[in-house]
Amino acid sequence: MAQDITLKLPSGINAPTQDDINAAKEYVLERSRAEIALASAVDDILKEYAERMIRVCYKYNIDPQNFSFGANDAMRQEIYAILDDLLEELLSLIEEDAVPQNRKNKHYGAIISWLATLGTHNKDLKWTTQYYISRFSKDVEALVAAMKYAGYDVNKAVNRSKSILHTLYTSPEVLAAMKSGKMFNAEAIISGGTKYDPFTHKPSVGLSKYGATNLVTMARSTLAKAWMESEFMEAEDEGMGGYYVFRGSSYPCSHICDLECGWFHPMSRGMVLPRHSSCQCWALYVKSDKGKITNYRNLNLYML
């Protein structure tokens, strides 16, 4: 929706043009399309690896209640090897797709090195991906136990798994196992899908109980951060003096995104976007002119 916006421009800062505005908005839309494509690719990979794990587990004659990845040493080793392959494939995919394809410029190496440091629990990207893969593996373990309990053969289990990786603990098969009153060795059947923080050993806060959802969200967030950092580095090269943040959606976000909007962010502050995993805010860069910033002037913009 079109709107009039008044910016307080510091002296020594050139006013943005309508072309600048359009390009800034299109950049975030392009980033959003890249996020969706990456999320779809990650989801396809997770379905593929879930199938590989299920087929391995079904080779071993372990009854549903006694089933867990640790119930057989040979099976456990096969599963661990699959999870190692999954880690390598996801990290390679994220590294390849996280930087804008048409912007692999002189900053490419720096961005790749920077994004490798991103992660949760003050850890890096590799640790975070391993952590979420571990959570994903608990889901597949529960899924196999539930499918065996339901009497499904391997092909039916595989086909069913592809539609419930993000809703596993509300599926009839898993609910039946959890509510059966019987003892299961699969950890997530016992806990009802609850996962625990590796440091506090308390139920995780702020994460989905579904490992697949965590991995997809992590991939999208990493891409979003890398795209915004790439744009920021290019803006530095072009001598931009700073930027303004604008909302890219109408979703209520008064306690996070709105706090960044409407004021001048000097380049020295760094890039503040994205503010959260589904942030669609965009940055409008303004160029420095010669001279000191001593006061502000108003600029009326018509935002299409």
Largest sheet: 3 strands, antiparallel
Output the radius of gyration: 24 Å
Proportion in β-strands: 5-15%
Figure out the total of helices.
Answer: 8
The coarse silhouette is elongated
Mean pLDDT: 88
Spell the H/E element sequence: EHHHHHHHHEEEE
Question: Termini distance?
Answer: 7 Å
Question: What does this 3D model show about the protein?
Answer:
With 304 residues, the protein is mainly α. Helix 1 runs antiparallel to helix 2 (73-98), helix 1 (18-58) packs across helix 4 (125-149) and helix 3 runs antiparallel to helix 8 (211-237). The chain contains 8 helices and 5 strands; from the N terminus they run βααααααααββββ. The strands form 2 sheets. A 3-stranded antiparallel sheet has the order 3-2-4. The chain has a two-stranded antiparallel sheet with strand order 1-5. The N and C termini lie close together (7 Å). The chain folds into 2 domains: 3-33 and 230-303, no CATH class; 36-217, no CATH class.
List the helices and strands and how they pair.
Blueprint: E1 3-10, H1 18-58, H2 73-98, H3 108-115, H4 125-149, H5 154-161, H6 172-178, H7 187-191, H8 211-237, E2 240-246, E3 265-266, E4 282-287, E5 296-303
Antiparallel strand pairs: 1-5, 2-3, 2-4
